[in-house]
Amino acid sequence: MKEITAVIRTERLDAVKDSLVKVDCKGITVMDVKGHGEQLGIEEKYRGRSYRIDLLPKIQIMTVVGDEDVEKAVTAICEAAKTGHVGDGKIFIKDIEEVIRIRTGERGEKAL
After folding, report:
1. Where does 2-111 sit in CATH, by number?
2. At 19, which helix (H) or strand (E)?
């Protein structure tokens, strides 16, 4: 099993959720986060003064899928989140040793 964590633009959340549903990704966790990467923030003007905003709002989506479903989940996220501009986000993939469904005690991929 793999944990897929994607940090994306806030306005792309609905598109990414819909894409993950289409590839039968059963559950996701969504968090509001702030950060910056290559773009190093933005500069805005307010009442004639410039302000540097270096931590931009982003959405972090986390899901766990079976090894055989990783590529289709990653492809779904990439296609839905991509705008072609700096700041589209990143995807991180980690190994998951065990999953346990608390309600039933099921373990492994059955618990997903």
Report:
1. 3.30.70.120
2. helix 13-22
For the CA atoms of 97, 99, 100, 106, what is the dihedral angle to 10 degrees? -100
Place of tokens 């609905």: 14
pLDDT per position in the chain (112 positions), as tens?
999 999 999 999 999 999 999 999 989 999 999 987 776 667 777 788 877 777 889 999 999 999 999 999 999 999 999 999 888 999 999 999 999 999 999 999 898 8
Q: Tell me the DSSP string of 22-50.
A: HTT----EEEEEEE-STT--EEEEETTEE
Whole-prediction pTM: 0.84
Which of helix, strand or coil describes residue 99? coil
